[in-house]
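Exercise 3.2. Students should predict the tertiary structure of the chain below and write it as structure tokens, then compare their answer with the key that follows.

Predict this chain's 3D structure.
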Amino acid sequence: MRSSNSACPSEDDLKALLVAGMPDEVRQAELENHLTDCHRCRDRLEHLTDSEWKILLSDSVEDSGSKSVSGRSAAPTSDTRKSNATAGRHTSDVLLPPDAPGPESQRLVHQLPGLELIDQIGRGGMATVYRGRQTRLNRIVAVKIITESTARPDVWMRFRQEAQAAARLQHENLVRVHDSGFRPGIAWIVQEYCDGGTLLQRIQKAPLIFTDAAEIVMLLARAVGVAHSAGIVHRDIKAANVLFNGDIPRLADFGIARQLDAENGVTQTGEIIGTPSYMSPEQAGGAATSAQPAVDIYGLGAVLYESLTGMPPFRAATVIETIRMVLEDDPIPLRKLQRTVPRDLEIICLKCLEKSPESRYATANELADDLQRFINREPILARRSPIIERAVRWVRRRPVPATLLVTTALLITGSLLAWGQYTRDVLAEREHAGNMQRMAERRADEALRNYRRARVAVDAAVSSILGDDEPGTSELASGQREVLEHARIVYADLTRENPSDPELKYEQAIAHLKLGQVLRRTATRREAAAEFERAISLFAEVRDAIDGPQESDRRKAEAMLFLAMDARETGNADSGVVLATQALRIVPSAGADDLLRARILATLAWAQSDSGNQPSAIKSYHQAINLLQKLNQREPQSVAALSVLGESAFRLAACYTRTADANASQKFRAMATEARREAVRLSPDSPYPKSSLLISLAGDALVCVRNRRFEDALSILAEAGALGEQITPWQLLWGCMSGIANAFEH
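Answer key:
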């Protein structure tokens, strides 16, 4: 470290370095390194007042006049600096569409030693990015030129230190930093040029296939892990900062976001660093921990969320509302927005987006490892937050929807009272009434959002227990029954109101549908049927009054499916046929609804078989299986599709047995067993796939016994034994298989 006065630059050298550059590039590099190492000179520059800066600049301009130093143009004047300082202060460096190169580009090209600017490729609130050429190496590079507050030497010191640290990072998925430099009013970074566009541009065309999204974020997480091990935190990871060189994703601007703000995560003007939709809660709240690696785990989760759904976790009409959502709300589960997202990938993503840093992955490498397990179709380590915890979280954060509706009514009443109170001043009266009306509308919108959030929170708890409410699901455990009882109370509260707003009616119809599902497992089929019928009525009532009538039709068909299932299971197969046929007529034929259509076809076939119409049942089962096989090709990790495929193939085999077609029966029995094996492999902790596979294996073993293939039967029973669990239905099934095994011994 240099600390003696003799080693420090003279006033003339300092002016030349800071204003116009040194004629000797070797000397310039020496002085820049000296400023980085010398605490005395750094303190001297950091404590310059604004007036001293103006004197330094004006003196230097007088010394240089209109001439340049070694071919470089004179420094910008204090007026130019002030003009730069009044430009828009955006704390997030989002690149905007490039402008055509203008005079500024021509002026800057002479101020950047060893660089030739070719054209502008992007701009932001504090930075402009150019495609350029390093003349000495004849290398195409990206040149990021930063102005405004970064011209201060104290900021430049941190900027330079971070740029040097980033330049030391070597990883295939990090954009390499080649060089950096500084002049008053201007600082720049020379980095690798990537010609493949940004991840954001790809997402804007369409959400990514889930395997591609997982692969990209896994690679980025490995790169972030390398940076964290070097003590560098990005703090502004977002899709716009992920560039592609060919098909290789590379994270840009590493380390730059950290140095552009103060020590506590905000700028000198009090603005929060980062992009609101991608901020972690600790960044949005300005916490001291906003420089910890956990914020980058959150950012990677936000990138994964947007890659899969096409939208960031939180986005509102205003920045303030977005930040409030980041601090208070939970992101909507991905499968609510994109049904094709596998459940394991949703769990990984939501773990990254936990409000508490301690609840996220401990390191970026742990995240990468879990994504690699998902890609390899291995069990992941992340686990979903406890159901009760998530439901209680929503209840505590949001008032009961009925209370919000009452509040809205009180606000409207208050606006009328205020209108009467100010009758002497018509203008003031109108203005006040208008303000209150707008407030009421905002409250009404908030009521709808809260109604929806409350329902979605409970939906998640119910879906984790009921899944798709498959027939034959094992008996509920006591804890599961308790959760469903709480869900029943919440759904009942949501259905007591009589709203006139179509959107609220639609939400209430969904609540009736969900309540019916819960009642099927906790009460009587008659009570459940009443809820399904009310849901069908409401869906029909609001169909043409809301956006997306297809979604209303899909929900209505879902309610009719449950009625058809209950009719068949209670011995009324003919009614089941009628209800399932009606549901098929209204369910949309879009690919996104192939699973629902297949479930309806399978239920129709089952009812047709029970009513004795085997040819029609066989035809319906084949239609369902064809749909499910296509769906399985598109979504090979869909446990729900595999479960319905296994059920349909198993019952189709039974139909062929009744028609004495042994070959067809054997073919579809094998298909059922294989589909159920794959479902168990993908979801080893779910009870329904296991119990279904046990039933298939028991049937296969019995067929082997009939054909006197005892060794094969014993092998099948050994596989079944490995699935045994201490749950009553499985114990009964295991007892049946044990009886078969005893028969072999005799």
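Discussion points: The longest helix spans residues 426-466. DSSP finds 31 helices and seven strands in the chain.
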